[in-house]
Design goal:
Chain lengths: 169, 332
């Protein structure tokens, strides 16, 4: 049953992403993005990564996208006025670069880069230790340095946001 | 289809059916109880006409709401306007899937756990699903094409995001002591001592943020009628309005059930069966909501935000620090 669920979820997430790009109304765009995020969370569950799935929904759809919607609703971008393209010279380079990106992605997927040998943490081992426990343990042992560096990066970003917002005071 | 799978499906469907209907019944009785208790606290009688002491009043209200004209404003975004009450109610109902409400029993040689499903990220599932409820409110506020609705929707979503953070952080103390995110493990860890005694600060922070999270008095700023008419559901009528109403009560039951599971030992208790204890504790928490509503006046919006970010958030981080220190010192 799981492969079918994967196909359904993958297809809906791709369709939602396409709507996200082609929809004119920014509020609907944000909602399609939310829908796509939820589909991706289900894909994480199918990969036996329940913790990542839950965090994906809590952080991205539950917090970040709500703030996005906030800003969009408060600014109330008028859909009818925004018809003309502000950056017409961008169009042709964008098409070329998009095509290049597609080719590179296709070549990468076709190459054997992603088919490395099986690592230390197989799904059976993850199952026996517990997914969340394993992530916690690894974050604070093997990957402590990147973890702490990320937290410092976020801290700097928070301070930067406060300084930008409070410049006048 | 083999036999094991069939039995699993039957048991799961029966459990879902029972829990779903029990929650619906609790919502209905909560509406009646709230009116009666509030009335008696204000030395009134409350509903008395329909049935014995107004017992059938919620049913009468429900029928009335069903037959009212369902108005959709002309300039509203139709799809989102219809979808919003659903988005508010469905996540509120989904959270009950992981809440354990009794000890496991044996019927015909099959072990039946008194929980719909015990997933290993139980509390994260609840936080994730309940955070989706914000979209119902935001969508309702925006799609109504009404300034009061929009302001109410933005206020309540800001409030819910702020207090979701403190809810999550206040529960971390318990999760650290249990060493598991599964709701069943958390209940089993409390068979000797309730976490309420071990984590008093965590419970205090949780209860304040839970009341704010479900937009109840004294934190019911999103529907402050003197400022915002009725908040995000100003334009809603008939059954759509009652769905928002039900979602509010379902959320109240959810946060009370989390409080029972995390701080009051779940279904553990002497003499009586587990399900009875769980319901008793849940009713106590729900009564607390009504009691608070009859007691406190409403906070101002900026006071609410200050309390969340400048008082409760540092306090919950402090609680995690203390819990960690004590655990290290005791060598757990």
């Amino acid at each position: 049953m799981e492969p079918y669920l994967f196909y359904v979820m993958a297809a809906t997430s791709v369709v939602a992403s396409l709507y996200l790009i082609f929809e004119k109304n920014p509020v609907f765009c944000a909602l399609y993005m939310v829908f796509s995020f939820i589909n991706i969370a289900v894909l994480y569950v199918l990969l036996e990564a329940q913790f990542i799935a839950a965090v994906q929904v809590i952080v991205y759809t539950g917090a970040i996208m709500v703030l996005f919607l906030f800003v969009i609703m408060l600014l109330m971008v008028n859909v009818e006025q925004k018809q003309k393209d502000d950056l017409p010279f961008q169009r042709i380079p964008a098409m070329i670069l998009g095509f290049v990106l597609l080719v590179v992605m296709g070549l990468t997927i076709k190459s054997k880069i992603f088919q490395g040998k099986e690592g230390e943490y197989t799904s059976a081992k993850v199952e026996s230790i517990g997914h969340t426990q394993l992530i916690g343990k690894l974050l604070f042992t093997d990957y402590l340095l990147p973890f702490e560096m990320t937290s410092i990066l976020l801290f700097v970003a928070v301070i930067g946001a406060i300084i930008l917002a409070k410049r006048k005071v | 289809m083999d036999k094991e799978l069939l039995i699993f499906l039957i048991i799961a469907s029966v459990k879902i059916f029972i829990v779903f209907n029990a929650v619906q019944l609790m919502i209905v009785s909560m509406i009646w109880l709230e009116r009666k208790v509030l009335a008696h606290m204000q030395v009134r009688l409350g509903p008395m006409r329909v049935g014995f002491h107004g017992l059938l009043q919620p049913i009468a209200d429900g029928i009335k709401l069903l037959f009212k004209e369902d108005i959709i404003p002309e300039k509203a975004e139709k799809i989102l306007f219809v979808l919003a009450p659903v988005m508010a109610l469905v996540p509120a109902m989904c959270t009950f899937a992981v809440i354990p409400f009794g000890e496991a029993i044996n019927i015909f040689g099959y072990r039946i756990d008194m929980v719909i499903t015990d997933i290993n990220v139980g509390i994260l599932y609840i936080l994730a699903v309940s955070s989706m409820g914000i979209y119902g409110i935001v969508m309702a506020g925006w799609s109504s094409n009404n300034k009061y609705s929009l302001l109410g929707g933005i206020r309540s979503s800001a409030q819910m995001i702020s207090y979701e953070l403190t809810i999550g952080l206040s529960l971390i103390g318990v999760i650290m002591m249990t060493g598991s995110l599964s709701m069943v493990d958390i209940v089993n860890a409390q068979s000797k001592m309730w976490n309420f005694i071990l984590q008093p600060l965590g419970f205090l922070i949780y209860s304040i943020s839970a009341i704010a999270e479900v937009n109840r008095c004294p934190f019911d700023i999103p529907e402050a009628e003197t400022e915002l008419v009725a908040g995000y559901h100003t334009e809603y009528s008939s059954m759509k309005f009652s769905m928002f109403f039900m979602a509010e009560y379902a959320n109240m039951i959810t946060v009370s059930a989390i409080a029972v599971t995390f701080f009051f030992g779940g279904w553990h208790g002497p003499f009586l069966p587990g399900v009875v204890w769980f319901m008793l504790k849940l009713s106590f928490c729900l009564f607390g909501f009504i009691w608070l509503r009859a007691t406190f006046p409403r906070l101002r919006y900026d006071q609410l935000m200050h309390m969340g970010w400048k008082f409760l958030l540092p306090l919950s981080l402090f609680n995690i620090l203390i819990t960690g220190l004590v655990m290290v010192i005791r060598g757990l």
